[in-house]
Amino acid sequence: MAENPLIHDTDAGIERLLEIMRRLRDPDTGCPWDIEQDFATIAPYTIEEAYEVADAIERQAWDELKGELGDLLFQSVFHAQMAEEAGHFTFQDVVRTMADKMVARHPHVFGDESRDKSAEQQTRDWEAIKAAERAGKEQKGALDGVAANLPALLRAYKLQKRAARVGFDWPHAGHVLDKIAEEAAELAEARESMDADALEDEFGDLLFVIVNLGRHLGVEPEAALRRTNAKFTRRFNKIEERLAERGKTPEQSTLEEMDALWDEVKAEEHRANGKLPPLKAASDA
Q1: Long-range contact set of residues 67-71: C-beta below 8 Å, sequence gap at least 24
Q2: Digit-coded pLDDT (tens) for 195-254
Q3: On the CB side of 269, how many CA atoms lie within 13 Å of its CA?
Q4: Which domain holds residue 28?
Q5: How far apart are CA 55 and CA 53, in angstroms?
């Protein structure tokens, strides 16, 4: 098979990437691994790449972000190539659909509607347009269209937002706090019974209500938990470093020693962030 010069044209842009994908999937000359894949086997990689984009942003690793965005783009190209082979649609159809959607959802930018409105009003308009789109797809229920394979916390958040739009919501965060106390008590009761199904059920209820509290407070649960995961990782790494300075590993330490180091690291971070006054120097004491 003659080599397409487009593959080696570093200035060719998206057309080069599309050609590379076509070659990888060529049944005669392509890569055996790429040829064997289907939508179901590639989907987990797509999810993983999206999280790696989020991770690079969280760490402000801008050099890495370029590569991670490329990896995510390649996932779209991979799915579109498989769809074209099956006769479903092409990559250009994907681009056209997205462009049409953005134009339709921004009449205040691309149409004759005024841009002179608040972000809240624009959000309401966006949701109204999306509701009309769902109606066109014959999605009748308020919760229709919330993807089942979303991460559980994110899906809970989106389900609750959808339910709130039709009035199924607590009016104040205080009501949610009361519900958290109720669910925590039910979890404690389930713990007494040691019934695995009951424990999982009640634990899920508690998580669901905590997600609802985040929504009322304007906090996205996935973002909040990612932030806390990063904080825990950062602090625990520092505990390991300080134990190593003492010639120890965590396994060779005690919980009390690690707790003391945790408090030390936490206090240092708070001082660095201005949440605690700086320590006085010995000469100032």
Answers
A1: none
A2: 888 899 999 999 999 999 999 999 999 889 988 998 999 999 999 999 999 999 999 999
A3: 12
A4: 5-105
A5: 5
pTM value is 0.65
Instruction: Identify the domain boundary among 105, 124, 157.
Output: 105
Q: Does the residue 34 lie in any domain?
A: yes
Report which residue type is found at 276. L
> What distance lies between CA 245 and its chain's CA centroid?
36
User: Residue 12: inside a domain, yes or no?
Assistant: yes
CA 258 to chain centre: 31
Q: Quote the tokens at residue 157.
A: 């958040």
What b-and-e string marks burial along 100-109, b requiring 16 or more CB atoms within 10 Å of the CB?
eeeeeebeee
Under a CB-based contact definition with an 8 Å cutoff, are residues 109 and 102 in contact? no
101 and 89 share one domain: yes
Q: For residues 212 and 256, state if they share a domain.
A: no
